[in-house]
Amino acid sequence: EIVMTQSPATLSVSPGERVTLSCRASQRVSSNLAWYQQRPGQAPSLLIYGASTRATGVPVRFSGSGSGTEFTLTISSLQSEDFAVYYCQQYNNWPPRYTFGQGTKLEIK
Amino acid sequence: EVQLVQSGAEVKEPGESLKISCEGSGYMFSTYWIAWVRQMPGERLEWMGIIYPGDSDTRYSPSFEGQVTISADKSINTAYLQWSGLKASDTAMYFCARQKTTGAYRGDSFDIWGQGTMVTVSS
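ok -> structure tokens follow
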């Protein structure tokens, strides 16, 4: 099983700051990597797929990069609604296997 | 509007059976894979399995195979997750989610999520 490891577990930041979240895969996953945002009490929502493509309606302040085993999600200027938990997920083609990272929680400093 | 609507919260005793549902609307339900994802309290998301409603082709995570059954009824645009004998360790939030691409299986992200169904198993 491919293990996804995110860092840091928690990040305390101020609104307006730029933040970078990291995700590492235990094996190469090419660009089969997605990022999700989960606000408290809500379902996850897709932010980035294919490692760097923003999903429909996602603000341009969110960007993704990386390939292989190292990936990052950058939020250029944090807004109040961005304080949430962020998960990375790898998806390979066959056999179907999807694994998520343990999440990074963005909290207000 | 494209959406997945899940059935309501459940409280069950150990050993009981349960079937929760996920109804799709606003798109051609039978042509998109539907996944089930577990989230235990304070834990990461875990993929359980995926089904293609068009022909009920189903694939399970090795961690969940034999523990749950995933099914679908394309005539009513609904996917299901069921247990035949619940355990306390099944207490969790369960989400259904649509895979972004249609048709023949190809790994992809999940672009539409249900609101979640909380399952509590306690004596």
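The mean pLDDT of chain B is 96.
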